[in-house]
Amino acid sequence: MSNQKIIEGDYILLYLSQRKTYLVKVEAGKSFHTHKGFIKFDDLIGKDYGSCIPSSLGVEFIALKPLLRDYVMKSVRKTQITYPKDIALIVMFSGIGPGSRVVEAGTGTGALTTALAHYVKPDGRVYSYEIREEFLKTAEKNLKRAGLIDFVELKTKDVTAGIDESDVDAVILDLATPWLVVSHAYNALKHCRTIVSFSPTIDQVVKTVEALMENGFVDMETVECLMRGMQIERGKTRPQTLMTAHTGYVTFARKAMGHTM
Amino acid sequence: MSNQKIIEGDYILLYLSQRKTYLVKVEAGKSFHTHKGFIKFDDLIGKDYGSCIPSSLGVEFIALKPLLRDYVMKSVRKTQITYPKDIALIVMFSGIGPGSRVVEAGTGTGALTTALAHYVKPDGRVYSYEIREEFLKTAEKNLKRAGLIDFVELKTKDVTAGIDESDVDAVILDLATPWLVVSHAYNALKHCRTIVSFSPTIDQVVKTVEALMENGFVDMETVECLMRGMQIERGKTRPQTLMTAHTGYVTFARKAMGHTM
Amino acid sequence: MSNQKIIEGDYILLYLSQRKTYLVKVEAGKSFHTHKGFIKFDDLIGKDYGSCIPSSLGVEFIALKPLLRDYVMKSVRKTQITYPKDIALIVMFSGIGPGSRVVEAGTGTGALTTALAHYVKPDGRVYSYEIREEFLKTAEKNLKRAGLIDFVELKTKDVTAGIDESDVDAVILDLATPWLVVSHAYNALKHCRTIVSFSPTIDQVVKTVEALMENGFVDMETVECLMRGMQIERGKTRPQTLMTAHTGYVTFARKAMGHTM
Amino acid sequence: MSNQKIIEGDYILLYLSQRKTYLVKVEAGKSFHTHKGFIKFDDLIGKDYGSCIPSSLGVEFIALKPLLRDYVMKSVRKTQITYPKDIALIVMFSGIGPGSRVVEAGTGTGALTTALAHYVKPDGRVYSYEIREEFLKTAEKNLKRAGLIDFVELKTKDVTAGIDESDVDAVILDLATPWLVVSHAYNALKHCRTIVSFSPTIDQVVKTVEALMENGFVDMETVECLMRGMQIERGKTRPQTLMTAHTGYVTFARKAMGHTM
Description:
- Four copies of one chain form a homotetramer.
- By secondary structure, chain A is of the alpha/beta class.
- Chain A folds into two domains: 11-64, Vcp-like ATPase, Chain A, domain 2; 69-255, Vaccinia Virus protein VP39 (Rossmann fold, 3-Layer(aba) Sandwich).
- In chain A, 23% of the residues lie in helices and 32% in strands.
- Chain A has helices at residues 68-74, 84-94, 111-120, 133-145, 182-188, 202-214; strands spanning 11-15, 21-25, 31-34, 37-40, 52-54, 60-64, 101-105, 125-129, 152-155, 168-173, 189-199, 217-231, 238-239, 242-244, 249-255.
- An eight-stranded mixed beta sheet of chain A has the order 9-8-7-10-11-15-12-13, sandwiched between helices. A four-stranded antiparallel beta sheet of chain A has the order 2-1-6-5, covered by helices on one side.
- In chain A, α5 links the parallel β10 (168-173) and β11 (189-199).
- The radius of gyration of chain A is 21 Å and the shape is globular.
- At the A-B interface, α2, α3, β11, α6 and β12 of A face α2, α3, β11, α6 and β12 of B.
């Protein structure tokens, strides 16, 4: 994680502009093609991270070292989108950190899984449930690319049928019917630990909060987070013209005692 | 971190309602007084975390295990407030994780420091600069309470005069004049690593972004994050009536090469 | 409406600061008392609108001529608050203007009624339904104060039992059960004219939209409007710290033909 | 304004869906072509407003009577966009109504002019300044289409050089350099009347507020308005995915006395 020279096999973030970046694997003898010309990987190998590299058309790219957010953004595909702003909030609300054991469902293409694994490594573990096998394959690829596959157990299982793990630190839900997992989550969690659920619709939230109240959770809180970009330029500063108006609601609760299933 | 029984010396979160919680230290022979009666700690010691405990007036409290967010919220005092939503975003944008070495300035009362320490432990380290000694004392107390002091080096130093560390993974700024720290941050950072700055006013952001452009940073992005609570109750669901309209703008950039100081 | 001198019987807006204003009636021989001293009305009579007037404690007030928004804000009492931002949107969406005939329910204390009357005068008319007589008295007082009572017919009637008027240009609803008024509104409206409903909860909106779909309305649209104040000062410009996070949702639709009751 | 039958020469709003509407003139013997087939106007003439009409491909359109908002939305072209939410707020803040005399600058393509004329008719008047002649032609066309040209005086003049009118009820600015018009506005306004300025950037707002303070205005207020659409459907209700994040800031002030130019 700390090498400062680009070596064969590294994933790099080729940066053209804030809007145009490419997450690519450095492969000797090969090139990467863009609408601004191609980049020969052999020209990159051995260079310092952060170097400028001209394309075949003379356009300058910068070879950046990918960060968590890049892996998250680039793993967003084919399924419901989870945004960095939501992932950040989910992680913070869940209370997890290095060493935590976390159950996640569903995996999707692994955007949230990637973030969870990043924060619980090296001693923690993410148990990620998904019933759609094609998603698990994509998630596995994305996790390998981010170097985080070792901290994740991908499970082809229906989480609404039960959670195998116990004494976990958090259960994190990003699926269509979170309320069906609430009682399983109660049993899987350590005392006082957290459930965090992400849902796009109001009705999902209402059903989930009702299930939480019925199943011994306390301190329920539901929020939505709006992130707006700013265009910063002296004399012309203003918020951006367009924004994502809605991704989903984040619901949080803690397991209290005294609830017998 | 994983004990499930309350023992003497633990910090617990006494929960009355979502709005009323108290972060207190369990001390044998002592009591904690609230407007709803007092709690004898001796009644708590040996109980499971998550247990209900009646006060002297018969009002039920729940003895919860504090999470990162609780430590963050309860360390917010005497100085500019940094909100969990902003801390979550700063952490995610910075790319830090277990093992990262991070420079922070200023420490304030340690709310953001607490979060940074939580995510970089056990092998990472936070170097936190603050010139106001009275804040450092509060920060130290808050970090000790959260069990995170071992991962932080508190420094009574003016960060605008320079950064002692080098090859760090992130520089995180929450101070009045972030633009004065940008060139020092460039020198302190590893290639491709990040600077993240939090500022309440537009003018601070403009000056900081200009300094970033002049000092070899790329991929600048400034956002603001609005978090709105929802009141969830079947038939009565609606957003909350009041919200925090503004805390500050989060500005992010990455160090590229080729900039000579 | 166009006098520029203050005369006995006028309502004036005494302005101390953007946060501190008083809507008062000018009465010869009397005074108005504030925490910053009192103002003798005799000192004001005959002065130009916009004049400065010192209080008995030497604090300067400005005698402003009230605008629609002042009457709206100052009539907000005892009941659900309708904000200028929402009133503005309701008026615009409704399509009403000078000469329009409008049904409103409920009247409440007349904040929205005041605005509707202002825009339909002098040839239009507002028919405003309210079942709570104590509100109608306050509304009448507020409308008189704003000089708009002549354009309003206040009706002590339950609008869910039916609308007396026909061929109206708009039906505007700010009551707990708007869905019960939708079929009456259809019958009362001219073709293609509008219904606009204001509701604080999601569930009210869902029921109302369902009623609109079942009752021959088209072009349904529901929005919420967030207004955030800015603190403008060179070098310190920033959004305000607190804001109203939610007042209600505005739902709009147009009557199409072919629906037989 | 009150005919209920479609006649030759009327402008109608052909409605296919909430997203697909067309503002067209009914011309005998002609047709209107869409991607869903064409509509013969002869089939519409004599029908009731609100009628369904099938296209040549059998797709049903509804012939709606255009409302103010439709004229506003459809006149938005070639220039800075002013949104209904902003127009609604500008109108409300300005305090204008039937009979008001209003100065506006710049005209642009007449979206805001259309709304102002709608609210001040039949006895009021809008004096609208614009230096770009090609815009004035479009504005004139848009105002004629909305039936509001008689209430507007379009002026090919640079408002920063002065305002011809005096004793006006409001000055409304939507141009690049509003601060250059502030002293002219002061002279043109009746006492206590309003200036309202709409600007997309922070810097424009700061300069304008400074000019207002220097020129005898009081009660300054700057706001921004965010409007978010909701998707209403039982069991699937949620905010829309995309929204306009920023159009501009609305700044309001009132003329006080005692300022001599």
